[in-house]
Structures are given as C-alpha cells and as structure tokens.
Design a protein that fits this description.
This protein is an alpha/beta fold and 317 residues long. It is built from three helices and 22 strands. 42% of the residues are buried.
Length: 317
C-alpha cells in the first residue's frame, strides 16, 4: 500500500508548480517590492511600483501607489488598518488588506483593480521581515573589497577586487551627514562592469543623509546598488538618495526629496517620490514569499491534497 505521505509529497510537488509566486523570477523579498515596512507607513507622495505595509497605513489623495505598470496583481498590501480617503492605486492593480476598509478609502485607477480582504498577512509580514533582517546581517558580514572613499567623496569601483561581481564598500554613518563632502558623493571606476554595489553603513544608530549624488551616478544602473543600514534605528533623508535602502531596524523619514530605488524599513514616513526600479543585485539569502492570492490558493490546494490523500488511503485498506 502506498503511504499517505508519499501521495502528499507528490501532491505538494504539483502544488508548488501550479501555485508559484506571481513574480516567479524573483527569489527574494528584496527583488519583489519597491517599499516594504514591517511596521507603519505614512504616505504623502507616490511609489512607482508595489508596496507592502506590515503595520498601519496613513494616506490621502496625495498618496499614489503603483504609479508605473509592473508584473503582479497587487499594487498595495496592508496587514494593518488604513486611515485616509481616496488613496490612489494605479494601473489596474489591486489592494490586499486584512479587513475591508470603509468605502472611499481607496481610489482604484486603470480598471480591474479590487480591494481584497486577505487572511494571513500578519504572518507573511513576520516571515518576510525575518528574511530581510537575515539579508541585512549577511550583507554586513561580507568582506569589504573596495577602497575607502577618496578625496571629494568618490566611490571608486574596482572590478578586479570585487568577488563574483559584487563590489562591497564600508562607510561610517557619520560620513553621510558631516561637511566633509559638501558637494555630494561621486562614483568612478568599473561600476558598469560589476553586478552589484553594496555599501555597508556602520557606526551609530541615528543617521542623517544630507548629500546628493552627483557626476557619474546618473550613469549607474541603480537597480544593482544597495545601502545596508544594519544597525540604524533612525534614518533621515534630507536630500535625494540613489540606491535601495535596507534598514529593517530603522524608522525612516524622507523629506520632500526623491529616492531613486527602493526602501525596506521598520517604518517609513515619506514626503517625496520613490522611483524604483526594483532591486536586481546580489542577495545573500533568499526565500520567496508568494503574493497574497498565491498564499490563499496554496492553502486551498493543500486542503484538496489532504482530502485526496485520505480518500486514496481509505480506498486501498
């Protein structure tokens, strides 16, 4: 007699194929979202791609999510509650939320979008947060293989010392806020020849970024640049910022300035635009998390598989 476990194993394998994440090419949460918070989000501007809010969302008609079209069903996911009216979600994208909000909370543009009450978002948030915290620790553990900032605040990328195409810099957080590099940060060297540029920010827990990114930064593929603030608990952005921000312990405040990439944080209060694109660089650990619809479908499929297995076992006794 074939065991129920063998039948379930095959059924689970089929389920894994049938109900893979909608963004199947992305192996990591870092590669799937433009904004992720484990806690609350206050939105006063727009996000180009999709957003996951692990806590509560405060927004208004000035809050615009899914500004640009992208692959995937949900432009916005909220595990907590929502405060505000006419919060916009564009391009026909839907909203996944733990419980249905009052009428008028969201303005869905582009046709086809829905507000979908979805179970399990808090648990998914916990799993995704754990993955991102592990990512941050693993980035911080990478050996620095690039030279320190040179005079004038220049990141000089040396492809020859990068490991497997990953260039790793390390700077103290105080560098972002002092007056040493008044004109801003520059970049030079082999930045086009490496697959990822990782900048580990060390030092104190409170960091303010006051500099712009000038010169050749406009030529760098920002999807492969990541700033890792592993220990920061407070991060304030006072000028335009270039590259994905990973700061899972930090409450991030973004003034009326742009972020040319993505934000992963404990909480975020943003008053400027978040442009993307999604991060495509090196990820030291992974663990794909399905979109909310995939999670629901997987649960349904698992229940069906269990019922099928029980029937098969009874029929062979």
């Amino acid at each position: 007699m074939k065991s129920a476990f063998g039948i379930l194993g095959r059924a689970a394998g089929v389920m894994a194929v049938m109900f893979s994440p909608a963004l199947a090419s992305a192996d990591s949460v870092l590669q799937q979202y433009s904004v992720f918070t484990s806690g609350d989000l206050t939105a006063n501007s727009h996000v180009n791609y999709n957003t996951w809010v692990g806590g509560n969302l405060t927004g208004s008609a000035n809050s615009v999510f899914a500004m640009n079209a992208f692959t995937g069903t949900y432009g916005l996911t909220v595990a907590g509650t929502v405060s505000g009216t006419n919060i916009q979600v564009n391009n026909g994208k839907s909203v996944a939320i733990t419980s249905a909000p009052p009428a008028g909370t969201f303005l869905l543009n582009g046709g086809g979008g829905q507000v979908v009450p979805t179970a399990g978002l808090a648990a998914q948030t916990t799993a995704m947060t754990t993955e991102l915290v592990n990512n941050s620790a693993a980035f911080a553990a990478l050996a620095t293989n690039q030279a320190a900032l040179s005079a004038g605040g220049v990141f000089t990328v040396n492809a020859a010392t990068a490991v497997n195409g990953v260039a790793v810099f390390s700077i103290d957080g105080s560098v972002l806020s002092n007056s040493q590099y008044q004109n801003g940060f520059q970049i030079a060297g082999d930045y086009a020849s490496v697959g990822s540029i990782i900048i580990n920010v060390t030092g104190g827990t409170s960091v303010s970024s006051n500099y712009n990114f000038i010169g050749a930064w406009s030529n760098v593929d920002r999807s492969k640049v990541l700033w890792n603030f592993e220990n920061a608990t407070s991060l304030t952005l006072n000028n335009n910022f270039y590259g994905t921000i990973l700061a899972m312990k930090a409450d991030v405040t973004q003034g009326s300035v742009s972020i040319d990439s993505n934000v992963f944080a404990k909480s975020l209060n943003f008053n400027g635009e978040i442009h993307g694109p999604l991060y495509t660089g090196f990820v030291p650990t992974s663990g794909a998390v399905p979109e909310p619809s995939s999670m629901v479908m997987s649960a349904t499929a698992l229940a069906a598989a269990l019922g099928f297995a029980r029937r098969r076992v009874r029929s062979r006794v």
